[in-house]
Amino acid sequence: MNKLFSPENEKLLRHTKETRTELIGDKPETYPVWEIPLSLLRYNLTNGRIYLGVDELITEKDLESLPLEDYNNEIEKLIWESNVDKNEETYENIRLFGQLKSGMVVEDGTIVDGNRRFTILRKLNREFPNDEKFKYYKAAVIQTDGDSKIGKKDLKKLELSIQYGQEKQLDYDVVNFAFSIHKNVTSETFTTREIADVLKKKENEIKTLVRTVDLINEFLEYFNQKGNIHIVRELNLFFPMTALEGFLKQGKLVNGLTDLQISRRKELFFDYLAGGKFELPQQEMRDKLVGKIYKTPEEFEVFADKYDEKYAEDVYEALHNIEPGLSFIDAVKTFRSSDVSKEMVSDYKRIIDRIDLKKESDAPIKTLKNIIDDLDNIVIEPYLESQSSQAKEKLQIIKKHLKEINEKVEVLIGKSNSV
Fold it and tell me: Average per-residue pLDDT in the chain?
């Protein structure tokens, strides 16, 4: 695409009195703001806020080869549908008052900040083609060459900061965010430390996101669905998968497991997440499958053996060996409504109930052992030997509590002897 400041394009731009200051690297830079014809601008495909949508779109179409207007039409539709309520609100504000906040673009016309505003202006320009305030997009222009150029890495840091900065963190979609961050890390554009610094987050938060996306990619590959990222959204995989990520990073529980044992736990997790119908899958995976079965080795063996014996073959046929013409999503929906899936979930719940009951039945024994240990640690000799009034007063309180304990013990002994 031609540069905005090429001889044929520069005469179409209109200078304003506004400026915009951004932190580039470690120092602030101030840029003049221009009014730029909408026809000279293009959406940024690396916008992390629409990562999943773009990924799905580029599997269907070669976006980069499309004419600019067709390319922009495709991304405009994606951005509008990503958050219709928010976009309608912005649409009404710009319709009434025009574009109040400037965007930011690279000198080739690619938008770094302000994709939503660009989307709204395009719509308004089509609706009101003669209205001057909808013909131009106000933006600061960043140079990528020349004396005031910005390096590629600093430009990407700026994009991340703008897309996911502190003031916008309530507004972004965590799944798009996680996949976008994962791409930046795995492509070695940034380290997790660098991303954490840019976004003012803890590095462990970024590492958790990256590991969770790694597991989602393993899930897709396990079911022969590699690259079909739309499945993440349709099956709501991200948040339940954080439960498995949380288990695998617990060194004390996992360090003693072989690679084969870890792989076995992953596969069972994947099969239950895909094949079982749960009302609250995130809580179910985190609090029960991982929190109770995976954290108790003997219970896991019972669980795994029963699964292998009764369900493994059916799950494989339904979800790994899918009939031609049937999508993975349709295969999942069909299997989840089957009697096999319902019985699989029922067996799983019976194991959870047994674990809970066992814990409850052991509770009195554990409590009594703790009481005995506490009684062994009580020392009353100093009170017996002291002649002070305060010591005598404390001793009376001790006698009172011991009497209460004795009375409660006699009641429990009586109940136990009646059985």
Answer: 87
